Amino acid sequence: MKISAVILAAGYGTRMKSDLPKVMHPLLGRPLVDWALRAVEPLAATPPVVVVGYGQEMVRAYLGDRADFAEQQELLGTGHAVLQALPQIDSTVDTVLVTYADMPLLTGATLDKLVDLYHAQQADPGLAIAMLTITRDNPQGFGRIARGADGNVAAIVEESDCTPEQLLIRELNPGIYCFNAAWLRQHLPAVPKSAKGEYYLTDLVAMAVAQGRRVVTASAPIDDVYGINNRVHLAEAETILRRRVAERHMVAGVTIVDPQTGYIEDTVEIDADTTIWPGCVLRGATVIGKHCTIGPYSQLIDAVLADRCRAVYAVLEQARMDAGAEIGPFGHLRKGAHLGEGVHMGNFGEVKDSYLGPGAKMGHFSYIGNAQVGANVNIGAGAITCNYDGVHKSETVIGNNAFIGSDTMLVAPVAIGEGAHTGAGSVVTHDVPDNATAYGVPARIRSGSAGDPASVGEIRGI
Ligand code: UD1
Ligand code: MG
């Protein structure tokens, strides 16, 4: 069996009331059309053909090589849409799978069920279509599945064409089909225009039956075929998806204290015995190790945390934390921040483009930017690297075991030696040698041990 997929994505999405094409609206971090592609990609032998229309530039640019595109210039219905895609489908393809770009919850398992059904029956040359159906109390908006006295599908009747009896039918058409490719190529062009002026893909079912061909069905879970038409649907679909992602992590050993309030994108990896407290937003390429505590209320974007880390009321973006490091409450790690093993970063600190060596402590109100901080350095409350002179960013280097006094301003470029001290409130404009002490504004350097006034030596920077 060689499958190609056609994904319908040409609709206006008027009810989204948006400048963005409907299928580009994000759901748990990815556009709707991305979810639709990911569902069919494992099954299809060739890149799917996406039928585009409204907003197509954006859809084409986003998907790039992942898809082939067919343009539907006028939206003349689902039959017309698939017809536009047929020329793009390789002649060796024997099975055409059709899905919608605005049904992002369709799972691989449900599609597998459909394809397996088609496959199992494929030996029967009379087989034309395998399709999913759903059963649901509120049938509004769906085509009804009309079955004959023998129980076989006879037709799909669009809601606007239903008789009062047909309106009562609760078996519905979600719009996901597997077609015999040769049969589809031959008969799709013959679908007539409906009273509404559209070409209905659904008309193929009655056509197949009239030819004595077989149409077989598999039932789908309702959640899988959730179509998005407005932003209420978008939010509801996201709730379902978030639940699915949270369940996957919980089953794998992660404690999620309140799955309702968390937002975890499906790209995020979390190891066992980590606890996610309420209110956390975990996004992108974030990876979290074992025995970590995240939250309450933390946002991690593309952050990588080793085992036993803690992040409480913290914001981390493209940052790393080595084993046992902790941040918060109210800490911010910006791009390129890297906390070494066991680093403690407390209240109201910010680190950017900097490495803090193992065991470093930065308890309160500090900004460290463009800095290399050694092991076991103590950064006193309010200490700041003045890394920007208005034109250039400059580096600060702090040696192992240095002690940076409260409210020290380290005016970069500057290096603080190993074991050096800076006095509270000092403004350090020049390098401080190993084991020396700098104090004052601007700072004077005293070599030797602290507390020995006689050893005040070189005075630099004045
Ligand atoms: C369609 C089905 C209906 C089914 C319902 C499920 C037909 C005729 N009817 O109805 O039986 O119960 O879906 O949701 O197929 N699209 C295009 N080009 C077009 C028209 C539609 O790309 O010219 C795309 C839309 O963007 C959308 C999908 O096809 O993703 C479905 O179109 P929509 O207009 O919502 O079809 P329904 O009338 O809901
Ligand atoms: Mg619809």
Please explain how this structure is put together.
This protein is an alpha/beta fold. The protein has two domains: 3-219, Spore Coat Polysaccharide Biosynthesis Protein SpsA, Chain A; 253-445, Hexapeptide repeat proteins (UDP N-Acetylglucosamine Acyltransferase, domain 1). The protein contains eight helices and 43 strands. The strands form six sheets. It has a twelve-stranded mixed β-sheet with strand order 13-16-19-22-25-28-31-34-37-40-42-43, covered by helices on one side. Strands 1, 4, 5, 6, 7, 8, 9, 10, 11 and 12 form a ten-stranded mixed β-sheet that branches. Helix 2 links the parallel strand 4 and strand 5. The radius of gyration is 31 Å and the shape is elongated. It binds uridine-diphosphate-N-acetylglucosamine and magnesium ion. Uridine-diphosphate-N-acetylglucosamine is lined by residues 8-11, 51, 72, 75-78, 80-81, 100-102, 141-143, 156, 158, 172-175, 200-202, 227.
